[in-house]
Amino acid sequence: MKLYVYNDYRLGVEATDGTLVDITDLVPEHTEPRERTNALIRAWSTVSADVSSRVAAGGGQALDYVTVRAPQPQPRNLFAAPVNYHKHQQEMGGEKGVYTDRKILDVSVRKGFLKAVTSIVGPDGAIELPYEDRRFDHEAEVGIIISKEAKQVSVEEALDYVFGYTPLLDITLRGDEDRSWRKSMDTFTPIGPYILTADEVEDPENLDFWLTVNGEMRQKSNTSFLIWGIAKLISEYSQVITLQPGDIIATGTPEGVAQIVPGDTVVLTIPAIGELTMPVVARP
């Protein structure tokens, strides 16, 4: 199923007739609007049958007439995997790398980092660059949404804790500041346009994806090249951090990262999941 957040943070599901069916009534009435995705995920085992029947019935609104927002606007935690592709590691360091004077350590050493939840933005917004004299890069990633509390889970059972997947961009300021600072600025985590539930993704460890800027191919890879695969990331993080329903894990980016500037249009395509298009602007 394709789960959307739209208009005033209402919940919707794409029906078989292509319309968007409102399912906001399936979460408690007084849920804070930005928390509705979390509430839906927590209640999923009891409401999923009702959602399926509404998908089959259709008769909702045309998607062209709603404002599609980030499908998970307020997770408890937003985790990210640093340097999780070997070729990206190579392009960051070395004589021709971005950081020529540093040894670039991969995810097996750096493990992970946190991004500010307030960096999340949906297709209704834009990537806003706050400085005119600094380099900002695009990073194409697959986003994982956690389905239930995960504590010390094994690699073998880890995928049972995935609610769904979404295209995710990890926008990055290059420089000497701490990684979390450089990646946590407002609008630096675009996601969407929807969450595709895990049952619709045949093999998350073998997903093709690519990113273009103004139609030019910049990044193209497959999750099979991850140093720590999706199940491994969930398992490793859950050993020391209790993952919560609705938490997001950004899986890391492959080679091909490059600068973006105001006026660009960034498109991340994951054929098995979806496509996210984001304009780039100077911060007002």
From TrEMBL:
Keywords: Hydrolase, Metal-binding. The keyword Hydrolase applies. It comes from the Bacteria. Gene3D superfamilies: Fumarylacetoacetase-like, C-terminal domain. One of its GO terms (molecular function) is metal ion binding. The keyword Nuclease does not apply. This is Fumarylacetoacetate hydrolase family protein. It comes from Rhodococcus rhodochrous.
